[in-house]
Amino acid sequence: MGASKANSALVHAGYNPKPGTLKALLNVRGSEMFEELCAELGVGYKRIGALVVGTEDEMDILHELLERGRTNGVRGLRIVCGEELREMEPMLSDNISCALYAPTSAITCPYELTVAAVGNAMDNGVELRRDFKVTGIRPCDGGYELISPAGRIAAKYYINSAGLHAGEVCTYTGGEDLQRTVRSGEYMLLDRECAGFVRHTIFPTPTKHGKGILVTPTVHGNLLLGPTSIEREDKDDTSVTPEGINEILEKTRKTVKDIPYWKVITSFAGLRSVDEDFIIKPGERCIHLMRIGSPGLSAAPAIAVYVKDMLAEFGLELVPKDNFNPYRKPCHGLSEMSPDDRNKLIKQNSKYGRIICRCEGISEGEIVDAIRMNPGARDLDGVKRRTRAGMGRCQGGFCSPAVLEILARELGIKPEEVTKSGGGSYILVGKTKEER
Ligand SMILES: Cc1cc2nc3c(=O)[nH]c(=O)nc-3n(C[C@H](O)[C@H](O)[C@H](O)COP(=O)(O)OP(=O)(O)OC[C@H]3O[C@@H](n4cnc5c(N)ncnc54)[C@H](O)[C@@H]3O)c2cc1C
Q1: Predicted local distance difference test score (pLDDT) of residue 423
Q2: Which of 10, 153, 247, 436 has the fewest CB atoms within 10 Å, measured from its CB?
Q3: Closest CA relative to residue 71, chosen from 28, 123, 125, 9
Q4: Residue 62's domain spans which residues?
Q5: Can you tell me which atom of ligand 1 is nearest the CA of 187?
Q6: Is 12 known to be catalytic?
Q7: Is 160 among the domain residues?
Q8: Residue 162 lies in a domain
């Protein structure tokens, strides 16, 4: 529920990071690992390519990016102009005349990937502790004790990947908080009716302030506009502002024309650090991951391997599991099935025939799967991010009460105990009418 749930969902090709940085190395490596990882974990991945678009005056910057990308080892980069560019992307604004084309840039679903990665780890024997905020770490018996209001865990090693809070966690064992400025990125998400409006991820020419505000399809067929880059004091402030929305409207018009802004179904924001490089720093029997801003999603598979190799250097014996299963079945997919396959499934279990989310076509059977599969959904947002129930045009207006009932039934709790997103986010306060 940190940055990994609210970002542009892009697997960047790797032409942006400065050559020689960890970002450059791990972005390009991670991007090459992504397709196979998504196939194994049953997560959406589409290599649609990206266009960094510009005017004649911006051509020099595009050439610089091209060179940077080639130095970083990105394959297939080239400059496209004129007719060819218009044919590739007919909706570009009239002032756009050239672009850097990155064919290996892709889109994915970051929160489904995160859930699937955790689920697969659990299927292979990993234990997940939820609501376990680490508030202190104490050296003990040649290792550590991780302290939380929810309990304590003994650890021989620990990996601090607490996102924007990793700096604080690093200080618990005497390290330095190297996490710096935080910037909010606000987005507008448009209805799936806009599927196909643009074919690629469209970036403006970058400036010293960053990659700029993009227009991109999502793997689920929506159109995503954003992010802004606004400095925030509070590392958890994901508010969306009128200024942010106005900036999105103004800047996306410069790259893509006739965007149907009125088809917006929701807006949201994510927070990231915007430093030149990641910090992946070994300590005494621990590793701290700080400043993991963009392209942290694209680099994630390569970051994992990098951290694993660091653990091996500590002397930890890493033995591959004989029966490791890299595969995970997604808990939604009915709407993409053929009518025959759907009928077969409904014959086996009639719950797949009861549609709960009408916007996204999600059945009761899929919601039950999401609650029962690792890591089981425990609240409305958990169901939403596993099945898409509540992700559509009505944003859960119709399906939330039914999802709430299913959660209460499956978890054996009262409806009043069901939350939107854990903690105290209860939805119902009690009955207004007693049953007769
Ligand atoms: C607006 C925006 C756009 C972006 N776009 C892209 C993109 O298109 N492509 C790309 O590659 N990257 C992108 N990124 C970057 C990417 O999202 C991040 O690099 C990545 O998600 C960081 O993952 P993380 O696991 O380090 O942090 P997070 O996803 O934030 O996870 C940190 C976790 O640590 C937990 N935590 C915090 N403190 C504690 C504690 N004390 N104890 C226990 N747990 C704790 C949090 O609850 C959270 O679950 C974007 C980021 C943003 C914000």
Answers
A1: 87
A2: 436
A3: 28
A4: 3-111+181-257
A5: 1
A6: yes
A7: no
A8: no
Count of domains forming the chain: 2
Please name the residue whose Cα sits nearest to atom 41 of ligand 1: 134
Distance between Cα 292 and ligand 1 center (Å): 7
Q: Look at residue 153 and give its three-state secondary structure.
A: strand
For 46-92, write each residue's pLDDT tens digit: 999 999 999 999 999 999 999 999 999 999 999 999 999 999 999 99
CA of 113 to the centre of ligand 1 (A): 13
Q: Is 167 in the pocket of ligand 1 (CB under 6 A)?
A: no
101, 202 in Cβ contact below 8 A? no
Q: Is 240 in the pocket of ligand 1 (CB under 6 A)?
A: no
The answer to whether residues 343 and 234 belong to one domain is no
pLDDT at 427 over 80: yes
Q: Within a domain: residue 105?
A: yes
Whether residues 93 and 187 share a domain: the answer is yes
13 is a domain residue: yes
Tens of pLDDT, residue by residue over 183-216, are 999 999 999 999 999 999 999 999 877 889 999 9
Task: Output the pLDDT for position 332.
Answer: 66
Domain termination residue (choose one: 228, 257, 286): 257
Q: What is the CA radius of gyration of the chain?
A: 23
pLDDT of residue 242: 97
CATH of the domain at 35: 3.30.9.10
Say yes or no: 204 and 80 in one domain.
Answer: yes
Atom of ligand 1 nearest to the CA of 135: 41
Q: Is 114 in the pocket of ligand 1 (CB under 6 A)?
A: no
Which residue has its alpha carbon closest to ligand 1 atom 36? 162
With bands split at pLDDT 50, 70 and 90, how would you rate the model's confidence at 287? very high
Question: How many Cβ atoms are within 10 Å of 210's Cβ, its own excluded?
Answer: 17
Residue 149 Cα to ligand 1 midpoint, Å, equals 23
Residues 216 and 348 in one domain: no
102 and 245 belong to one structural domain: yes
**176 CA → ligand 1 middle, Å:** 20
User: For 203, phi and psi rounded to 5 degrees?
Assistant: -105, 150
* pTM of the predicted structure, to 2 decimals: 0.96
